[in-house]
Design goal:
GO terms for molecular function: ATP binding; ATP-dependent DNA damage sensor activity; damaged DNA binding; hydrolase activity; zinc ion binding. With 458 residues, this protein is α/β, with parallel strands linked by helices. Helices cover 26% and strands 27% of the residues. Helix 9 crosses helix 10. Bound molecules: thymidine-5'-diphosphate and magnesium ion (MG).
Length: 458
């Protein structure tokens, strides 16, 4: 019998070592090394390559001689997903979808399987039984022309056998952590298993030009479980996020070899599956009848799509010694910086105040163009003066209180105009090359934070 070969793997980052280590030299975590058998020594177990019988020999080619293929994109039947992928599905691409349990990853994928037209889809599930999937499928509105097959299997070798017979045009794997390959002896979900199964599926995808979706679990701090190299191996990494208690879900691209990263898709989870939300600003702006202080609207950009988002601030006298600062949907450090600017440059006494900040709709905003809107909301709450709901903001604020330019200002202005806003505050520096006459909305340009407040509150 051939000798078995094993190594120690850091379960946190995937670092490989020949001997056990207390502390991982790569990610500095303690006590994360676990022994895993990496090679059972049996070379004759078929992988995707030898099962298909052909082994292609690659030769170097001159760049000019390589035929440029126009990348063909197929629609997934889901416009939000198409956009997040960069305009549709590319043949042979491997897409990893991560997200918290119960957020709707399986629903999203099954919905895709049941709605894509003219493609044979194989949905491989290692998590649920055929009956459970059928029950879910009955809730979802399906395309009558769908050609969807379900396979409940966890061994990659068996999956490849079925794939060879069925010849699907799209493969979905739910989830990568439940698969195991007989080339590796460690348990499903361990670093070496996840890596090997992904590598086998990757090889299959590239050789047959079949797109493969992988569902991945995430760890308690939100990273995709398994080694970080998993994210390097695949072409696209999508994150499905949202608050389970809210109906809105956000699909975000974190990495995309075939499109823009940070593209965003929005869904609403309903009793009959996920519904695409094509006009997000409508849901992100709460309908209010009366004017309240502490609420402003920022014109942000997520990926290529402009979105008007409501920011809410509450400033109150700190009842206990240390003032509390908390932000939902926005970086707390950045909020503290903005508060320091307000204190130092504008003389607002905020150091003894509790400040709470909330971005509506459970959305996380990273676009710095929301800065001005946040500062205006804080001051509006602090002074208890409302800001008209017809005003919105799009500018970054620097440490000296200067109002800085943001990218794609025209797109933001047109979105605000389309949604019926009457006034938008932007930076002076954004004026260059901007055709102001094109817009009906009043464009107010400012260069210092003090100017904004004197214009708003007189
Ligand atoms: P699921 O896809 O199982 O999540 P994941 O695979 O990410 O763990 O989603 C399950 C949740 O979605 C569950 O709480 C029920 C809800 N749901 C609906 O609200 N409507 C539906 O039509 C379906 C299928 C699920
Ligand atoms: Mg699931």
């Amino acid at each position: 019998m051939a000798k078995t070969k094993s190594a120690y793997f850091c379960q946190s980052c995937g670092y490989e070592s020949a001997k056990w280590l207390g502390k991982c030299p790569s990610c500095n975590e303690w006590n994360t090394f676990v022994e895993e058998v990496i090679d059972k020594g049996s070379a004759n177990i078929p992988t995707w390559k030898s099962a298909s019988g052909t082994q292609r020999l690659s030769k170097p080619s001159k760049v000019e001689e390589i035929q440029s293929a126009t990348e063909e994109r197929t629609s997934t039947g889901d416009l939000e997903l198409d956009r997040v992928l960069g305009g549709g599905l590319i043949a042979g691409s491997v897409i990893l979808i991560g997200g918290e349990p119960g957020i709707g990853k399986s629903t999203l994928m099954l919905q895709l399987a049941l709605n894509v037209t003219g493609k044979k889809v194989l949905y491989v599930s290692g998590e649920e039984s055929e009956q459970q999937i059928k029950m879910r499928a009955e809730r979802i509105t399906a395309n009558p022309k769908a050609d969807c097959y379900i396979l409940t299997e966890t061994s990659t070798q068996n999956i490849f056998k079925q794939i060879e017979q069925l010849e699907p045009e799209i493969v979905i794997v739910d989830s990568i952590q439940t698969l195991h390959s007989s080339h590796i002896e460690s348990t499903p979900g361990s670093v070496s298993q996840v890596r090997e199964c992904t590598a086998e599926l990757l090889r299959f995808a590239k050789e047959t030009n079949t797109p493969v979706f992988l569902i991945g679990h995430i760890t308690k701090d939100g990273a995709i479980a398994g080694p970080k190299i998993l994210e390097h191996m695949v072409d696209t990494v999508l994150q499905f996020e949202g608050d389970r208690h809210h109906i809105y879900r956000i699909l975000r691209s974190i990495k995309n070899r075939f499109g823009a990263a940070s593209e965003l898709g929005i869904y609403a989870m309903q009793s009959n599956g996920l519904r695409e939300v094509s006009n997000p600003s409508e849901i992100l702006l709460s309908q209010r009848d009366e004017e309240l202080s502490g609420i402003t609207i920022g014109a942000t950009l997520e990926g290529a799509r402009p979105m008007l988002i409501e920011t809410q601030a509450l400033v109150s006298i700190a009842a206990y010694g240390t003032p509390q600062r908390s932000a939902t949907g926005f970086d707390t450090k950045r909020m503290n910086m903005l508060l320091a600017v307000l204190e130092k440059r504008c003389g607002f006494r905020l150091s003894a105040k509790d400040v709470f900040l909330n971005i509506a709709g459970g959305i996380k905003v990273e676009d710095p163009a929301i800065d001005l809107s946040i500062m205006a909301a804080i001051i509006s709450s602090h002074e208890d003066i409302f800001i008209s709901s017809k005003i919105c903001f799009a500018a970054e604020v620097g440490l000296s209180g200067e109002i800085r330019a943001v990218n794609r200002i025209e797109q933001r202005i047109s979105e605000a105009e389309k949604l019926g806003f009457e006034k938008i505050f932007i930076s002076n520096y954004n004026l260059k090359g901007l055709n102001k006459d094109k817009f009906k909305i009043q464009i107010v340009t400012v260069s210092k934070i003090e100017e904004v407040f004197s214009l708003l509150f007189g």
